[in-house]
Amino acid sequence: MTAELTTPGAWILTGMSGAGKASAAQALEAAGVDVVDNLGLDLLAAWAALPRRRAAVAVVDARQGDAVATLIPPDGVRVVFLTAPDPVLLRRLAESTRPHPCREAGGTLTAVRREADLLSGLRAVADLIIDTGELAPAELGRRVVELVAEPTGSAPLRVLVSSFGYKFGPQGEADWVVDVRFLRNPFWEPELRPRTGLDGAVRDYVHADPRTAELCDRLSEVLSWAAAHYASGGRRHLHVAIGCTGGRHRSVVVAEELGRRLRSENLEVTVRHRDVGKPDPR
């Protein structure tokens, strides 16, 4: 979807059952966004064309049945898709009293997979995919409100630089993913193994690899260039994920350094480390 949005914007909120759509919708309503739940697909185009003074969100998901699989969002409507790893979805669904929209497909896991298939088209065209597996409801609400509630052009581009470990799964919601496993690994140094990339000794070890500086030079240059074009196109969020094996050493160092460099370019940057507190499974 390349259509320019008017201000305020219209959005579709969709995604997997158990991924947090209800929490996101509640946060949006509290922020003054007009939210309509389970809007009929035959009404979507007319809803999108309505004049409005504030942002509006239509929650559209697998409750619409097979028809949602072929849905093409109306021009100018952006899509945010919520998901989570299957084990997280299964746990949350077990705690929920709401019937799964695809329960007739079979057991819970079968229903989850059927739902993912129905929503694959919307996921493919989504402007943002948020993995809520490790997000508290309040954090999810904040992120969705930041995305939807602020009129296009009223806020600067926000850049999230995150670190993660491939052993714990990829960053499915990231816009850019950078694999830094080619850098030398502090894990193989016994005195550094229990530490993290937030420790000075680990940081010095990673930076002693000359490829680290070159990588950060190249990344910061291209991201600064790209950020200007994203911002001029009305985009407000960019997620850059840096991955290493366990998410504790190299990716943390590079994410911190990249965040520092991007801030020096007057970008609004947040750095987060998804797996830095997890024990290495090796």
What is the element layout, followed by pairings?
Layout: E1 10-15, H1 21-30, E2 34-37, H2 44-48, E3 56-59, E4 77-83, H3 86-95, H4 108-118, H5 120-125, E5 128-131, H6 137-148, E6 158-165, E7 176-179, H7 200-207, H8 210-232, E8 237-244, H9 250-264, E9 268-273
Parallel strand pairs: 1-3, 1-4, 2-3, 4-5, 6-8, 6-9, 7-8
Helix pairs in contact: 1-6, 8-9
**What's the shape?**
globular
Which CATH class of the largest domain applies here?
Alpha Beta
What are the secondary-structure elements, in order, as H or E? EHEHEEHHHEHEEHHEHE
CATH fold name of the largest domain, please? Answer: Rossmann fold
Radius of gyration, CA atoms, in whole angstroms: 20 Å
**Strand numbers in spatial order across the main sheet:** 2-3-1-4-5
